[in-house]
Write the structure tokens for this entry.
Amino acid sequence: MTGEAELEWAAWMRAALAGDAVAYQALLLALTPVLRAIARRGCQRVGLTAADAEDVVQETLLAIHLKRQTWQPDMPIMPWVRAIARNKLVDALRRRGRRGREIDIDDVSDVLAAAPEEDRTVVNDVAKHLHNLAPGQRNVVQAVAIDGISIRETAQRLTMSEGAVRVALHRGLALLAQRLRERGA
């Protein structure tokens, strides 16, 4: 990965945050092979499988999508992306019951220029599985995860408390993540 690529990705993210869906899709497509390389290398180092690595990629893309408003547009994008990837790798280790081993995502920086592989966007994956959710969860996930509406505004639109929106979002995303893992198996 070059500094030039990171600058372009940051520009795409800024445009995406301003509502440019084409820039957002370009960003996710560009990040996917990078995340896949990070996840595969990290999983390999701790004895997880290629399927686990793909789960980490999907969960990282989903987290990027859901947390995109937390990225500060005046900051570099890759430290933010790596932190999310590291957290999803740690989550994968916890699911497998492997504790006490630390993963330094910075150790995998040498594989960031990996060749592109099959590209998929998290938005399409989430949208495909929305029908599996209960109506309340589906409305919340659609509003927050797909449409990018804030928790507060979603609560107002759906006449729910902010806490209820957070719970519905968490449960809906957990179910979607499970569906994505099952699909990968």
